[in-house]
Amino acid sequence: MGIDFPRWVGKFKEQWENKPIEFLDKSGRWREDPDPLFSSISAAIQSRGEISADELLKISQWKLQGKRNDSKIKQNETSEVERRSRIALQASNDTEAIESLTQLSGVGVPVASTVLTVAKPTEFAIIDYRAFRGLAAAKPEIVSPEEYATYAEFLEHFRTYLRKAKTYEYYMTHLREIAEEQALSVREIDMALWAFDKSKT
Hints:
Elements (H helix, E strand, L loop, with lengths): L4 H10 L6 E4 L5 E4 L5 H10 L4 H12 L5 H4 L4 H13 L3 H8 L7 H11 L9 H10 L9 H13 L4 H18 L3 H15 L1
Antiparallel strand pairs: 1-2
């Protein structure tokens, strides 16, 4: 494998400063989690088994780096956000988890993947175009022109990653294989892929 994953995890962490994500602690107060592995927010969410509507808004703002999605996110009823997030966090597979969250207004696959990852960073990873592109460098066999069907599958998933739950399943299958080989978490793999791709573009 052509990527030095521990090195790129380190590079990601170097770029992480001043990017904390906000969450509600046990007393209902807002806190910031400065850890790229989401240690505090994941513990808080797992203790509740759900996210709040306000947390969904904060997660969307953090992932999308702005407030352009706020009006859509605010259309969701608090009870529905809590219900959908409970279903997602108890789901038996990636597709079911993503589909539960993408039923919410303003939640596409990237935001849904972020919800799952901040809640369970050892089980899930954030999907975005940089990490997806980095996957091609980590596993060049999936983009080999000699294996046209495999290459076409990768391209189709890359084209639809914003909206198709099956693409997240495809992405996570590959990340879990790499994580097992590298003895890292899937979150660390997405961090490394993101940093690697950013350095090349």
